[in-house]
Design brief:
- With about 240 residues, the protein is α/β, with parallel strands linked by helices.
- It folds into two domains: about 170 residues, Vaccinia Virus protein VP39 (Rossmann fold, 3-Layer(aba) Sandwich); about 50 residues, S-adenosyl-L-methionine-dependent methyltransferases.
- About 25% of the residues lie in helices and about 35% in strands.
- It has a seven-stranded mixed beta sheet with strand order 3-2-1-4-5-11-10, sandwiched between helices.
- Helix 6 packs across helix 7.
């Protein structure tokens, strides 16, 4: 999972690549309010560096977050003093309470190794969802939208650093690997490191089946959230 080297530059890189965490958070709020106007509490599963929570903590009375990467959570804690943030695996966390809203954005669920793990994680999220609550999940690419052999390259500047990132994708049965190389220059010198991540390539049907198996009525909203869409599910009142 994300190492400290990447955690320190994550926001700089992804904001420069066009990710607008505030706009994404406002969209989440709009979707929730249309389905559950009185929602007052929210859990962000795979909260990363806390960029979504920076907005969502002003839209909901109580927010918490969990992430498997301790370095990412440490960055989030610096931004969100007083907010409860947990280092935990989305497949087996237990917080001892429920929330009106549970979200998992930035394709966090796609880091899971199999559809079975996806189903396990979604059941765990629903266990933390209050009756009548809303669950929002952002997928990664689907098998028919993934680009095998895609090369991306970025150079970004900010926070006293210049960062170069080059990545390459490769398809495998049911999954894909993204290999990324980073070169980071700051007044102290130049550092190079690599990150490799394997993502699940699952169909819309597999996501919807997993959500149904978790006890939710779900729909897929295409063409939002950087074009990857969102799955929106609701837990019954019982």
């Amino acid at each position: 999972m994300f190492a400290q080297q990447l955690a320190l530059i994550y926001d700089l890189v992804y904001k420069a690549r066009g990710q607008d965490f505030r706009v994404e958070s406002e969209l989440v709020t709009e979707i929730v309010r249309a389905r559950h106007p009185s929602a007052a509490s929210l859990l962000d599963v795979g909260c990363g560096t806390g960029e979504h929570l920076l907005t969502l903590c002003r839209r909901f009375g109580h927010v918490e977050g969990i992430d498997l990467s301790e370095p990412m959570v440490e960055v989030a804690r610096d931004k969100l003093p007083g907010t409860v943030l947990h280092v935990a695996d989305m497949r087996d966390f237990s917080l001892g309470r429920t929330f009106d809203v549970v979200i998992s954005l930035s394709t966090a669920v796609a880091y899971l190794p199999s559809p079975r793990d996806l189903a396990t994680a979604l059941r765990q999220m629903v266990r933390h969802l209050a009756p009548g609550g809303v669950l929002i999940v952002e997928p990664w690419y689907f098998p028919d939208t993934f680009l095998d052999g895609h090369i991306a390259a970025d150079v970004v500047r900010g926070d006293g650093r210049t960062v170069s990132r080059v990545s390459h994708t490769r398809r495998f049965p049911g999954s894909a690997r993204v290999d990324s190389h980073y070169v980071v220059a700051d007044p102290h010198g130049i550092e190079h490191f690599t990150e490799s991540h394997v993502f699940g390539l699952w169909t819309q049907g597999q996501y919807l089946d997993a959500l149904a198996g978790a006890g939710c009525t779900a729909e897929y909203l295409p063409d939002v959230q950087s074009g990857r869409g969102l799955f929106v599910a609701e837990r019954g009142l019982r």
